[in-house]
Amino acid sequence: MALWLFRGLRKGVVTTRYPAVTDPWARGLPTPPAFDERLLSRALADRLVEICPSRALAREDDCLVLDVGACTACGRCISQSAGAARPSRLFELAATGREQLLKRIAIGSGEIVA
Ligand code: SF4
């Protein structure tokens, strides 16, 4: 850090470039879930909505709506989804509009797995 700081001060650089490649450490970071719509049922979606502590999940008819802006990547829905959700490994989530952070996942006809 100190080396970076002094180099920046000497060269007058106040920002750093966006990394060209993903930092290997980022692979272990928690990320919002990605859902497999084939394995989702209404009952499972309702259960996931219930357990989400940040209210990032909602069900609208046959869609599970994930608010990526509210998701804290706690992983609770992933552990309770019986394989219907996995970490997305996506952390570049910046958007220019709030609506872009709402992901609508069509619910398939799969049966809930307890
Ligand atoms: S990872 Fe946590 S906060 Fe994000 S949708 Fe799942 S339960 Fe909610």
Explain the overall architecture:
This protein has 114 residues and is an alpha+beta fold. It has a single domain, classed as Alpha-Beta Plaits (2-Layer Sandwich), CATH 3.30.70. 21% of the residues lie in helices and 18% in strands. It is built from 3 helices and 5 strands; from the N terminus they run αβαββαββ. It has helices spanning 2-11, 42-51, 76-79, and strands spanning 33-35, 57-60, 63-67, 85-87, 102-106. It has a 3-stranded antiparallel sheet with strand order 2-3-5. Strands 1-4 form a two-stranded antiparallel sheet. The structure holds iron/sulfur cluster. Residues 32-33, 52, 54, 56-57, 66, 71-77 line the site of iron/sulfur cluster.
Topology, please?
Elements: H1 2-11, E1 33-35, H2 42-51, E2 57-60, E3 63-67, H3 76-79, E4 85-87, E5 102-106
Antiparallel strand pairs: 1-4, 2-3, 3-5
The chain binds iron/sulfur cluster (SF4).
Iron/sulfur cluster (SF4) binds next to helix 3.
Question: Key features?
Answer:
alpha+beta, Alpha-Beta Plaits, three-stranded antiparallel beta sheet, two-stranded antiparallel sheet, 21% helix, binds iron/sulfur cluster
Strand content: 15-25%
Shape, please? elongated
Helicity range of the residues? 10-25%
Ligand names: iron/sulfur cluster
- Taking all residues together, what is the mean pLDDT? 89
* Count of distinct structural domains: 1
User: How many strands in all?
Assistant: 5
List the helices and strands in order. Answer: HEHEEHEE
Strand order of the largest sheet: 2-3-5
Number of helices: 3
